[in-house]
Amino acid sequence: MDLKIDDDIAAKLRKLLEDEGKDAVVRVRESKIGPPCKAKLVLRLSIDEREDDDVEFNVKSMPFVMNEDLVEQYGENLKVTMTEDQQAFDVKSV
Predict the structure, then answer these.
(1) What is the CATH number of domain 2-93?
(2) How far apart are CA 83 and CA 90, in angstroms?
(3) Do 75 and 51 meet the contact criterion of CB atoms below 8 Å apart?
């Protein structure tokens, strides 16, 4: 898995992981955004726990996980950015 992430975002994620404890991981997940009738699926990051069907990988010494089905759907080359409002971590295929 190749996940590109800049140092500022990595520092924010590292802080979130530290606050959650030693078993926490960063999850790449699908989220619905927008009004219900026009919602679209996007990839986002969240702090979570490991699950059996996860693919696990390390980025900048942090544990990341992603469901096997999402890896097949979106591929293994991803890039993390912040949303315009700086409230969420956005993930895109590259």
Answers:
(1) 2.60.300.12
(2) 6
(3) no
Dihedral over alpha carbons 93, 11, 20, 4 (to 10 degrees): 20
Indicate if the alpha-carbon torsion angle 34, 40, 44, 46 is positive or negative: positive
Kindly report, residue by residue over 42-71, the tens digit of the pLDDT: 999 999 999 998 999 999 999 999 999 999
Can you name the residues that pair with 45 across neighbouring β-strands?
Answer: 28
pTM: 0.89
Domain range list for the chain = 2-93
Distance CA 27, CA 63 (A): 9
Residue 7 to residue 29: CA distance in whole angstroms: 21
